[in-house]
Here is the input.
Amino acid sequence: MTEDLADFVDVLEANEAYAQSFELAGLLPRAARGLAIVTCMDSRIEPLDMLGLNPGDAKIIRNAGARVTEDVLRTLALATHLLGVERIMVVAHTNCKMASATRDEVIDIIEQASGIDVRSLDFRLIADQRETLGVDVQKIRSWPYLPPNVAVGGFIYDVDTGRVTREV
Here is the structure.
C-alpha cells in the first residue's frame, strides 16, 4: 500500500473550499428528529435528501447491504441512550450488489483484482432482500440493550425513482 498524499489531493482541496463556507459549527450531537437510519454504502443513496432531513436531524449508519451487524447494534445502543434516537429506519435499496451477487462471484472478483484470498470473510450477502430486511429489523426489535419504546421499521429505497416504501 502506498502512503502518497497525492492520492488524496482532490478531496483535500475540495475540503478546503468546504471549510471556507462551513456552517455546521455548533450543531448539537443529538439527532434533532430522533431518527437513526441504517442504510447501504451505495453512493446512489443520499439519506438526508431522500427523507427531507437536514444535517443534525438523524444518525446515519452505513455498510454494504444495510445489514444489522453487531457493530450496528452497538452503535444503535449508543444512539438511543446518548444521542436522542427514538426511531430507527433500516433502508435497503433496489439493485443492490449484495442482493444480486453470489459468494463465489464476489470472491472471484476480489481475487482476480487483487490476488487476495478472501474466502474466510463473511460478506453478509442477501439471497432474499425482503426476508433479510425482516430478519434485520427483528434483530433490532429484540435486542435487549435498546429502550423498549424505540420504533423500528424496514424500508426499500428505489434507486431509479427515489421512492422509499415500508416493507416491515
The CA atoms of residues 30 and 84 lie 5 Å apart. Helices lie at 9-20, 47-50, 70-82, 103-114, 129-142. The first strand starts at residue 35 and ends at 40.
